[in-house]
Design brief:
By secondary structure, the protein is an all-alpha fold. Helix content is 64%, strand content 2%. The protein has a two-stranded antiparallel sheet with strand order 1-2. It is globular, with a radius of gyration of 23 Å.
């Protein structure tokens, strides 16, 4: 434990000493406030499109729509909760000790950062699993695709992410104030509890991305094989199947680009020899800056996710590529119910 723990367990020495003028310049709330407004607006637009479009523009009763609603709602709440705290700390000139000497707000934000960080990755894996079953197991899909089960899966994802976020409050790892003093996150220390929690967070996020990549690769390969194969037109994928797959690939790419750098950085830092954090609780200036940069990149995931859905809909894609709308009637969006179980042919 570092020497200034009398103020609270979340405070550690930071390798940056700002003058009052420098603090006022860095602490301008306009950048984080603008960032939050853009993110919240993007998610509100996506939610309104989901609510106004018939079945969200996707296949009727598709559980993919449920997962997508859960993802957009999670991103919206994540930006709202964490953004409000960051903006308030910037308005307080980054003096966390003055407003939260007991570290309660810091602990709350740490839990929120882990929860809202893991949920999009876990939901992405759940969406990839649903599409994998829907494409490669079309005959068993109606038995597992009820909206109730889909919402139950979303609830399990939220419970898992929340349970992991609460571990530092139970003794595994610690949440500490991070540079420049506007946010709290897990501690990148070599102490066994800190290292274990950091690796758990990084590995769970990385495994979610890897699982999404594996399942989406198989799903796309199956769609391509069926679509370009010799099956009859009635057995080819419907437009909505392709649309969902395109959106899911976009969500996976966004999550990978935004989150993998931070996850790799966390794992590398807690396992570094010699330890990146000194016994006094200090990180080098380069490490402090890198953590902040990677976190900002990861936060873009919450802004880009809704635009993947907004832009990768059939109505938009057909405007960009008119040939997509010039399809035979046998490939219409609403095939005969009798042909639905074999929408993707024998797989």
């Amino acid at each position: 434990m570092w020497s200034n723990a009398s103020l609270g367990p979340c405070f550690r020495p930071i390798n940056f000493n700002f003058t009052l003028e420098e603090r006022r310049l860095i602490a301008s709330p306009w950048f984080p406030a603008s960032f939050c407004v853009v993110g919240l607006s993007s998610n509100l637009v996506a939610l309104s499109v989901l609510a106004s479009s018939p079945q969200g523009g996707l296949c009727p009763r598709s559980p993919f729509l449920t997962f997508l609603c859960g993802l957009v709602l999670t991103d919206f709440l994540g930006l709202l909760v964490t953004g409000a705290i960051v903006v308030s700390q910037h308005a307080a000139l980054l003096d966390w000790r003055a407003g939260d000497p007991g570290c309660r707000l810091c602990h709350f934000m740490g839990v929120a950062m882990v929860f809202f960080g893991l949920c999009p990755l876990l939901l992405g894996a759940a969406m990839a699993s649903e599409r994998f079953l829907g494409i490669t197991r079309p005959f068993s899909r109606p038995a597992v695709a009820s909206p109730r089960r889909a919402w139950a899966t979303v609830g399990l994802v939220w419970a898992l992410a929340l349970g992991l976020g609460l571990l530092p409050l139970l003794g595994l790892g610690r949440y500490t104030v991070q540079y420049p003093g506007s946010w709290c996150f897990l501690t990148l220390a070599a102490r066994p509890g800190d290292a274990a929690f950091g690796l758990l967070f990084a590995c769970l996020g990385g495994l979610s991305v890897a699982l999404s990549f594996l399942l989406n690769t198989v799903s796309v390969a199956t769609l391509c094989r069926v679509y370009h194969g010799g099956e009859a037109a009635q057995q080819r994928p419907r437009d909505c199947e392709v649309e969902m797959m395109v959106q899911l690939l976009g969500i996976m790419v966004v999550a990978s680009v935004c989150w993998l750098p931070l996850l790799v950085f966390i794992g590398h830092t807690v396992l570094r020899t010699p330890p990146a954090m000194s016994p006094a609780g200090q990180l080098s200036q380069a490490t402090e800056r890198q953590l902040l940069i990677y976190l900002r990149v990861a936060t873009w995931n919450q802004i880009l996710d809704p635009w993947v859905y907004i832009l990768f809909r059939r109505a938009v894609l057909r405007r960009l590529h008119p040939r997509l709308s010039a399809r035979p009637r046998s490939l219409s969006l609403r095939p005969r119910r009798a042909s639905r179980p074999a929408a993707l042919g024998p797989l």
